[in-house]
Amino acid sequence: MKAQPKKPSSPLRFLLAGVHASAARPLTLKMSCAQAQRLIASAGAFLLSTGPHTFERYVASDRFCTPDQYAEHATTPTADTRSCPPEYVCRQTDTWFFAD
User: Fold this and answer.
1) Kind and range of the H or E element at 88?
2) Cα within 13 Å of Cα(1), Cβ side
3) Pairing assessment for the beta strands 88-92 and 69-73 based on DSSP bridges
4) Which domain holds residue 69?
5) What pLDDT is recorded for position 22?
6) Is the pLDDT of residue 46 over 70?
7) What is the pTM of this model?
8) How far is Cα 49 from Cα 40, in angstroms, rounded to an integer?
9) In the list 10, 61, 69, 73, which could disulfide-bond 90, CB 3.0-4.6 Å?
10) Spatial CA neighbour of 41 closest among 56, 60, 28
């Protein structure tokens, strides 16, 4: 029996996979502040949903940012507080180069 050639994956398949992956992000509104902090501290960096249509990548330190980013203190709402400081978020540096 001859092997069938593999069909290329459809773009819709990848789109649906992305929707499924986004649905798997933990929602900060359903966890305590301490749980969010432990999650980020244990993983180093974690993508968390902060609301129905919002998310943020939180990091334990600036070593989880790219070289052109810096770590900035951040807060997020959780089930037990409106302003939990989970750790940091990476922000883009404003680098300006001036030619002489």
Assistant:
1) strand 88-92
2) 2
3) antiparallel
4) 27-92
5) 46
6) yes
7) 0.67
8) 13
9) 69
10) 60
Residue 51's pLDDT is 87
The mean pLDDT of 51-64, rounded to a whole number, is 92
Query: Within a domain: residue 100?
Result: no
| Neighbouring C-beta atoms of residue 64, cutoff 10 Å | 19
- Region 82-99: mean pLDDT is 81
Question: What's the pLDDT score for residue 58?
Answer: 95
Count the domains in the chain. Answer: 1
In a domain, residue 75? The reply is yes
Asked whether residue 34 is assigned to any structural domain, the reply reads yes
Residues 6+ apart with CB under 8 A from 47: 25, 55, 56, 57, 58
Render 31-76 in DSSP notation, one character per residue. S-HHHHHHHHHHHSEEEEEEETTEEEEEESSGGGS-TTEEEEE--B
Task: Enumerate the β-bridge partners of residue 71.
Answer: 90
Cα–Cα distance, 42 to 53 (Å, whole number): 25
**54-59 β-sheet, strand order:** 45-51, 54-59, 88-92, 69-73
Residue 68 lies in a domain: yes
